[in-house]
């Protein structure tokens, strides 16, 4: 599975992407609302788990179309309840605020809901992460729940396939 947007290439995660993912997971700014920078052993185990995840769990390596430079990771995988699927994303800070996350996530949602044969998708972020909350709302997602998880208040957003974004 590979998609190309105006500015980015979205492709399935491959073993050769480990170094880029390690850089992403080791970035303090990226990990501010994700529990901090994990140990190397956790990063290695997480990466292995991403590569071995059963369908429809899907992990995407995001790069710039013009330079091939790595900018982030996006996934659709089983949510905590194992009944829904969750959209997750991490982008390197130098690419924040440029519209790239919106561009990529719009494409991933559209293709993901079609190809993965799921009718809705959720996303969870700390309520303190206002930029992420705004991005999810811009994508057409609606806050459906506020919960306590990982020691912080989390907002759960949902998007149904029949939403305006996908019509």
Record the SSE blueprint.
Elements: E1 2-4, E2 8-12, H1 18-25, H2 40-52, E3 58-64, E4 70-78, E5 85-91, H3 100-115, E6 120-126, H4 130-138, E7 142-149, E8 152-160
Antiparallel strand pairs: 1-2, 2-3, 3-4, 4-5, 6-8, 7-8
Could you explain how this protein is built, in words?
The chain has helices spanning 18-25, 40-52, 100-115, 130-138; strands at 2-4, 8-12, 58-64, 70-78, 85-91, 120-126, 142-149, 152-160. It is α+β, with helices and mostly antiparallel strands and 167 residues long. The protein has one domain: 3-Layer(aba) Sandwich (Aminopeptidase), CATH 3.40.630. The strands form 2 sheets. Strands 1-2-3-4-5 form a 5-stranded antiparallel beta sheet, with helices on both faces. Strands 6-8-7 form a 3-stranded antiparallel beta sheet, with helices on one face. A hairpin with a 2-residue loop joins strand 7 and strand 8. The two termini are 22 Å apart.
């Amino acid at each position: 599975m590979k998609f190309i947007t105006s500015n980015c290439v979205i492709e399935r995660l491959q073993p050769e992407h480990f170094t880029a993912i390690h850089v992403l997971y080791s970035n303090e700014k990226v990990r501010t609302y994700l529990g901090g920078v994990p140990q190397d052993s956790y990063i290695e185990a997480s990466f292995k788990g991403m590569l071995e995840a059963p369908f429809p769990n899907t992990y995407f390596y995001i790069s710039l179309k013009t330079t091939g430079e790595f900018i982030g990771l996006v996934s659709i995988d089983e949510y905590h309840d194992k009944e829904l699927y969750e959209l997750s994303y991490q982008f390197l800070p130098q690419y924040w605020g440029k519209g790239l996350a919106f561009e990529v996530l719009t494409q991933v949602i559209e293709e993901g809901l079609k190809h993965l044969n799921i009718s809705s998708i959720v996303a969870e972020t700390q309520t303190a992460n206002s930029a992420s909350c705004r991005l999810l709302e811009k994508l057409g997602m609606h806050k459906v729940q506020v919960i306590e998880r990982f020691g912080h208040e989390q907002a759960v957003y949902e998007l149904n396939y029949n939403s305006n974004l996908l019509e």
